[in-house]
Predict the structure.
Amino acid sequence: MTTPATKAERQAAVKKRASGKPAFQAKPAPGPADEDGTLTPEQQAVLDHQALQTKTDDQLIWLRAAKLAKVQFEAEEQAERAATRPVLEVVTLSELRKRPRPDWWIGGMVAQSTLVGLIGPQNEGKTFVAADMLACIATGTDWHEHKVRSGRVLYLPGEGVEFFADRVTAWEQHYMAGVDDEDFRIIEEGFNLSDPSAVDALCLIVAEGKYDVICIDTLSQLGGIENENDNAQMAAVVNAAKRIRQARPGSTVILVHHTNKSGGIRGASALEGNLDTVIMLKPGDGDRKGFFSLSTERPGKQKNAERVTLDHFHLVPSGPALVVARKALAAGPYRDAIMAVLADGEWHKAAEFREAWQAKADDGTHEEWKPSRYRAVIEQLTEHDIVMQQGMNKAAKYRQGAK
């Protein structure tokens, strides 16, 4: 009996043999029959014995062949798994401690090698915030008092691409900085995060173009999700976003998405669970109407730094469009004196600010110390997360915050 040569043939043989019994044919009975053609009892007994023996022999052959085919098929499957098995690296704590920590694209807010969600209500400025962040990264411009590491950015808009150039132009005019075409690119249309072939194409673009920050705006328009409340569908698109991030070491993917009616992250919990950072855009009300905050405090998320809330953002006209601005910070000698003391990155008591001021006052550089002026400046600096505060009143200590 010939064993099927290929894997497909062996699989087919196993299924065929398992689905039915083989056909058996008895050998002719020996000796002459009676004149009327009937068999004698002795002849019938011989015939029955031969048929039983033939059936048993054929069954054994069939069972041996089926077993051999199954063993060969399982061996091939095991070989295939071994060929595609991932390499798992075991490292020591000492090795981990020696590795450099991820740097920040935007200090304290957007880290390298992360998946970031920029979440906010519809028509409240999410796209303007995304454009603002991307333009700062593309030009290396500090983002509202936060230090920025420059990199190449790629923006995927779900709509309004025909007006996007105006928003970048407005940003350039407002901040007096030019955005280079080489550092800021756009993919107009045709992307679907649920389409593996589209994700493969984007991974290739990210790797070959050496893009550092990729922004998908918005998840509802470019995610290709039929039901945002389905955890399986949401997990699939988040995993696709991770694939894009992994296409270039150190790169970050920003997903722009909407809030639900209660102000949380819209859709299945798989989105929040798989994001490294969640920046929530929260519109102000009352005397803060027209302003908004950006927060990594709950329901926001930040795995790489302290959770913060940055206030006083608003949209202002600039040339052909609107841009994101932040309420002006106090400048002057008090701020300079405070930041000079905190330049070492350590915690300092308020008395140290006065001592540093007094040293300048003694040589005639500064006027007399004014506690009310100092308090106004330190409160504004802590409010904008430029300075971090620990403790209250006389026990308060201060340290340089994210910039």
Remarks:
- The CA atoms of residues 152 and 182 lie 8 Å apart.
- The first strand starts at residue 104 and ends at 106.
